[in-house]
Design a protein that fits this description.
Chain A: Pfam families: PTS-HPr. Chain A: InterPro entries: HPr, HPr-like, HPr-like_sf, PTS_HPr_His_P_site, PTS_HPr_Ser_P_site. Chain A: It is found in: Cytoplasm. Chain A: Belongs to the HPr family. The complex is a heterodimer. Chain A has helices spanning about 15-25, 45-50, 70-85; strands at about 1-5, 30-35, 40-45, 60-65. Chain A contains three helices and four strands, in the order E-H-E-E-H-E-H. Helix content of chain A is about 35%, strand content about 25%. Chain A has one domain: Histidine-containing Protein, Chain: A (2-Layer Sandwich). In chain A, about 35% of the residues are buried. Chain A is α+β, with helices and mostly antiparallel strands. Chain A starts with a strand and ends with a helix. Chain A is globular. Chain B is elongated, with a radius of gyration of 29 Å. Chain B has helices spanning about 35-60, 70-80, 85-95, 100-115, 120-140, 165-170, 190-200, 235-255, 280-285, 310-325, 360-365, 370-380, 395-415, 435-440, 440-445, 455-460, 480-495, 510-520, 530-540, 545-555, 560-570; strands at about 1-5, 5-10, 10-20, 160, 180, 200-205, 220, 225-230, 270-275, 295, 330-335, 385-390, 425-430, 450, 500, 525. Chain B has an eight-stranded mixed β-sheet with strand order 1-8-7-3-4-5-6-2. In chain B, strands 9-10-11-12-13-14-15-16 form an eight-stranded parallel β-barrel, surrounded by four helices. Chain B has 21 helices and 16 strands. In chain B, helix 10 packs parallel to helix 12 (about 370-380). By secondary structure, chain B is of the alpha/beta class. The chains are: A alpha+beta, B alpha/beta. At the A-B interface, helix 1 and helix 2 of A face helix 2, helix 3, helix 4, helix 5 and helix 10 of B.
């Protein structure tokens, strides 16, 4: 299992557009991938659930990746954040 | 006149095309056996598959006239349609509550609409319309709602509707409408996004007054102010027709130049940045092709209130700007009150000569606790973007050293409290007092950048109060004395490898562009809307010509002669 931490810098948080790209990406992997913020954890296969979290700029999120291709998935997600969502 | 929220600027004049949709109704019928449950569930899944196919077909048929934005909207719609959470909610309603698929879907969508509408973020609230939209599409594929006939819209009409959903943009050919206006919606609703992406004037959230508009009424829509005039008289119509012409000329320039690099014909890159007052101004900066912020006036934060903003309030203000800056440089000027700018809670005594009195950095260095608070707030926000600090009204070297000492103090206090900040944040000064311009070589050793503030520099150099009608004709940035100071500051800045910018009105005067480039100025900061005009001047001239112009101007002793010459040199 791999856990990654990101701080979202986009003022509007994770919007529909990056959420769509993220969910499409996650679907390519066999691993179970979830997103944790505060006390809530959601499966990263639903754009709706990502939007329902109502993240904002400055929020910290954790991505939890568990499965046979977790290494590749973690790298792909890292690239996604670099290209689509400013973070620190 | 009706007023809403202007979301896509421009003037539209045209006949009203009014569309209102019918809502699907609940049937209340319950399922009485497990077989029916299974059937309803599979009906839902089939309708979803069909809906996704419809949208994917649209995506595959997209041609050049589609913006990336519109395709992204459709891709998000595909994800919403196939969303596992929505499927689970609908299936649960069917299996546990024995609702038929029509009712289950309507209820699930209604609950999601309520959820989004309850969110504090305006963008999220607008997603409620996306939920209604996918609900309608699936319902239609369940055979519950009749297929909406594609609307024939006469080109040039103004579309009036409750709201405009992603599906509407597909079923209606809105490419040729002159504008649109909706009853509901906010700045980030789908209607607003589409309007901006396609450059169609639009206003949203006009409320139910809009329902008084009849098919075929003549309308004027101002997409900047959000105002709508119904059946205007001849005179008003004339005024708006003229405004529409003006605007389209300006917009054409802006659109054509937005992604063009500001380079001279022989390849000298010039950086164009903007002067802003708050985070909300950032959108306009990027729309006009600005590459960052050369001057964030922090005064807005201090004005229109009863007491000094706290460190946290200031931090939030700067952080907002940093987050919106796309990591482009943002130069924050520390408080510049005094002179003609006053604060009610800041009891400044009346002065004989306020412009030569207690103002800007002089106040900051006198009331160090206020200065320290502001610097700490900026430092804390510095981790969220590329922020820089600029001190205004510097008139001698010691002031810079003193200001930097306070900055160091702020850093120490933050470090001791274990608060993150960017330790090597760039520090610069405004050059707006003649003594600072004359001492540019010495000042250069103290800072990372200069920004030339021409408004004050002109008035101090020429001893002219530009607000005084009797002498304002003497206020002239092309006066050779002023030009000498400017060119000396630029030269000394480069000599010491400093970054030199100009943020006064001269930077936005196309008559001066060539001359300033010839002086080796590489960065111009101005109001966002001026950027396309100055860029237009830059891309038409060569660096070599600019050098020649500067050499010629150096030999001129009179500003009328200089201006006359520059007019002949405008490409």
């Amino acid at each position: 299992m791999i856990t990654k931490e990101y701080t979202i810098l986009a003022p509007e948080g994770i919007h529909a557009r990056p959420a769509t790209t993220l969910v499409k990406l996650v679907k390519k992997f066999k691993s179970t991938i979830s997103l944790k913020t505060g006390a809530k954890t959601i499966a990263l296969n639903s754009v709706l659930n990502i939007l329902a979290l109502a993240t904002k700029g400055g929020d910290q999120i954790g991505i939890i990746i568990d499965g046979e291709d977790e290494q590749e998935a973690a790298e792909a997600i890292d690239t996604f954040f670099k290209e689509h969502l400013p973070y620190s | 006149m009706i007023k809403g929220i202007g979301v896509s600027s421009g003037i539209a004049i045209g006949k009203a095309h009014v569309i209102y949709k019918q809502k699907a109704a609940l049937t209340g019928l319950l399922l009485d056996n497990e077989e029916a449950v299974a059937i309803e569930m599979s009906k839902f899944d089939k309708a979803v598959v069909k809906s996704i196919e419809e949208v994917e077909t649209l995506i595959s048929e997209a041609d050049d006239t589609w913006t990336e934005e519109s395709i992204a909207i459709l891709e998000t719609q595909v994800e919403f349609l196939g969303d596992p959470q929505i499927r689970e909610n609908v299936h649960t309603k069917i299996s546990s509550e024995k609702k038929n698929v029509n009712d289950a879907l309507i209820e699930v969508i209604a609950a999601l609409v309520v959820m989004f509408q309850a969110m504090t973020d305006e963008y999220m609230r607008s997603r409620a319309a996306d939920m209604e939209d996918i609900g309608e599409r699936i319902l239609r594929n369940l055979g519950q709602v009749s297929q909406a006939a594609p609307h024939e819209i006469e080109p040039g009409s103004i579309l009036i509707s409750q709201d405009i959903s992603p599906s509407d943009t597909i079923s209606m050919d809105i490419r040729h409408v002159a504008g649109f206006a909706t009853i509901v919606g906010g700045p980030t609703s789908h209607a607003a996004i589409v309007a901006k992406a396609r450059g169609i004037p639009a206003a949203v959230g006009l409320g139910h007054n809009l329902s008084h508009i009849n098919q075929g009424d003549l309308l004027i829509l101002d997409g900047l102010s959000g105002e709508m005039i119904i059946n205007p008289d001849e005179e008003t119509l004339g005024i708006y027709q003229q405004r529409r012409e003006q605007y389209s000329g300006q917009l054409g320039l802006m659109k054509a130049l937005k992604d063009v690099s500001a380079k001279t014909t022989d390849g000298q890159k010039i950086t164009l940045v903007a002067n802003i007052s708050e985070a909300a101004d950032m959108d306009l900066v990027f729309e006009n092709g600005g590459e960052g912020v050369g001057l964030l006036r922090s005064e807005l934060l201090f004005m229109g209130r009863e007491s000094m903003p706290t460190e946290d309030e200031q931090f939030e203000f700067y952080k907002k700007v940093a987050l919106k800056s796309q990591n482009k440089p943002v130069t924050i000027r520390t408080i510049d009150i005094g002179g003609d700018k006053h604060l009610p809670y800041f009891n400044l005594p009346k002065e004989q000569n306020p412009f030569l009195g207690y103002r800007a950095i002089r106040i900051s260095l006198d009331r160090k606790e206020l200065f320290l608070t502001q610097l700490k707030a900026i430092l804390r926000a510095s981790v969220f973007g590329d922020l820089r600090i600029m001190f205004p009204m510097i008139s001698h070297v010691q002031e810079v050293r003193d200001a930097k000492k306070v900055l160091e103090m702020a850093k120490v206090e933050l470090a001791e409290a274990n608060i993150d900040f960017k330790p090597d944040i760039e520090v610069g000064i405004m050059i707006e007092v003649p003594s600072a311009a004359v001492m540019a070589d010495m000042l250069a050793k103290e800072v990372d950048f200069f920004s030339i503030g021409t408004n004050d520099l002109v008035q101090y150099t020429l001893a002219v109060d530009r607000l005084n009608d009797k002498v304002s004709n003497l206020y002239d940035p092309f006066n050779p004395a002023v030009l000498r100071l400017i060119s000396y500051v630029i030269e000394q800045g480069h000599e010491h490898h400093l970054h030199v910018s100009m943020c006064g009105e001269l930077a936005a005067d196309p008559l001066a562009t060539l001359l300033l480039i010839g002086m080796d100025l590489r960065e111009f900061s101005m109001s966002a809307i001026s950027i396309p005009m100055i860029k237009n001047a830059i891309i038409k001239c060569s660096f070599l010509d600019a050098k020649v112009v500067f050499e010629r101007v150096k030999r001129m002793s009179d500003s009328e002669e200089i201006k006359a010459y520059l007019r002949t040199m405008i490409p």
